[in-house]
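Lecture 7 notes: from sequence to structure.

We start with a single chain of 108 residues. Read the sequence below before looking at the structure.
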Amino acid sequence: MDFLNFLLSNLTTILTIITLIVALVKYVKKAIKEKNWSKVIDLIVKYMKEAEEKFDNGADRKEWVLAMIKVSSETINFDVNYDEVSSLIDDLCSMSKVVNAPEGVSPK
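Now the structure, written as tokens:
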């Protein structure tokens, strides 16, 4: 009976602590995911460099990079959104065309 009274009298405190624990777990998961995103970007750049040497066709390069990211995502414990990765690859390719464009030539 004393335990029940204690539980009822401290119910709001207990619920607040549970809510804070749930929020902390969500925050930690998000932080881990964000930390791993930089590893994914590093892998994408590494694989893009390798693909540049291995393949002549841009579509083949991109397909290979996506396949390598899929395999690697398991080792870095990261749930990869392949649409985001695909878009990032396209953006990096577009950026490289601007950065590496010869002087006086405007990239399309």
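Residues 11-54 form the longest helix (44 residues). Keep this in mind for problem set 3.
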